[in-house]
Design goal:
Layout (H helix, E strand, L loop, with lengths): L1 H12 L3 H8 L3 H9 L5 H11 L3 H5 L16 H4 L1
C-alpha cells in the first residue's frame, strides 16, 4: 500500500520518476523500486512529501477512509494532499 501511495503522490504532483529521483539524489531505477518493490527508506520521506506537495501523515499513517469495505487500496490524490 505505501508503495502505491508513493506512486500516486508523485503522479499527482506532475513529476516524473526521473525528476523525483534527481531531487532525492538517487538513480531513477532505485526510485522506481520505491514505487513498485521496496518501501522508501525513512530518510527520504520528508523531502519526498515536501517536493510532492503531500502531507506526510496522510502518506504514512493508516487512514480508514483510504480502505474500501473489502480491504482493497483506494488511495486517491485528494486524500493524500
Amino acid at each position: 500500500m505505501i508503495m502505491k501511495r508513493v506512486a500516486l503522490a508523485r503522479e499527482w504532483s506532475g513529476l516524473t520518476q526521473e525528476q523525483m529521483a534527481r531531487f532525492l539524489g538517487i538513480s531513477t531505477t532505485r526510485y522506481a523500486h520505491y514505487e513498485t518493490q521496496t518501501p522508501m527508506p525513512p530518510k527520504f520521506w520528508l523531502r519526498f512529501c515536501h517536493h510532492a506537495g503531500v502531507d506526510w501523515t496522510k502518506m504514512l499513517l493508516p487512514d480508514p477512509e483510504l480502505q474500501s469495505d473489502t480491504g482493497g487500496d483506494t488511495d486517491t490524490p485528494a486524500k493524500l494532499g
